[in-house]
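Entry for the shared binder. Reason: the reviewer on the internal report wants the predicted structure included alongside the sequence.
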Amino acid sequence: MTKRSGVSMIAVVVLAVTVSLFALPAPAQAPQTPAYRAPRTADGKPDLNGIWQALNEANWDIEGHAAAPAPNPMTGAIGATPPGLGVVEGGPIPYKPEAAAQKKKNYETRGTMDPELKCYLPGVPRGMYMPYPLQIIQSPKVIMIAMEYAGAVRTINMDSNKPAPVDSWMGWSNGRWEGDTLVIDSTGFNDQTWFDRAGNFHSDALHVIERITPRSPETLTYEVTIEDPQVFTRPWKMSMPLYRRVEKNAQIMEFKCVEFAEEVLYGHLRKQPNK
C-alpha cells in the first residue's frame, strides 16, 4: 500500500468515528424541580398563615461568632452565647467609625443594657428571629404578626401606604405583594432596640425592607435589608429560613416577661438591696 493510500484510509476512519459520535443520543437532561407554589388564600395571594420560628443563633449575634461565656458568670452555661454562623450577607456590618465604637460599648455593657433583658418590645427585625414562635394572620387589607415574646404585635397595612404617624418600638409597616413575595416597608422606629444581644444597634432613622417568600410547605425565606445613614455607611442585608411549627396543638403561648424583669428595672430602688 502506498503512502498516499494509507493517508486516505486514516481519513476515512476518522470521518466514520466522527459521524458515529454525532449519531449517539444526547445524554438525558436531569429533570428540573418546578418552583414551589404556595397554597392560595381566597383573594389569590400566597397563604402565609401559620406559626413560624427561626432556628438559628441570630438573637445572640447576627454576625458569625464563637461560643462565649455569659456577661454575668453567676448564670453559668445558662447565660452563655452559643456559636453561630451568622445571618449577615456580604461581609461585616458596615458601621461608621463612631457607631462601631458605640457597638463595642454596647457589647461590653450587654449584661445590663440589652433591651431584651428588660422585656422591652423587640423591634424589627429582631422580633422575627428571637427564639420564640410568631404567628402570621393574613387578610386582604391587613397582615398581623403576633409574637410570643412580650406579646409584641405588628400590623402590616396592605391597602394603604401611609407614613409613620409617630416613632415607636415596632415601627410603622406598609406591605405589598411582588409575585409570591410579601414585601414589608417599615419606618417610624425609635432608637431603643438592638438587633441582637451582641449590641448591634440602629438610630431612629432606621428603614427596614423585609421580603417573605414561601419556599416549601413548611418553610419561608426571610430576607431583610437595613438602611440607616446615621449608623451605617451603606445598606446591608440578612437572610434566613423561618420554619413552620407543626406540633399537633401549635399555638402562641403567653410570655408577658415584664414581671421577670422587675429586679433588673427597679431593684436598685430598694431601701435594702438584695444580698
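Summary line for the report: The chain has five helices and ten strands.
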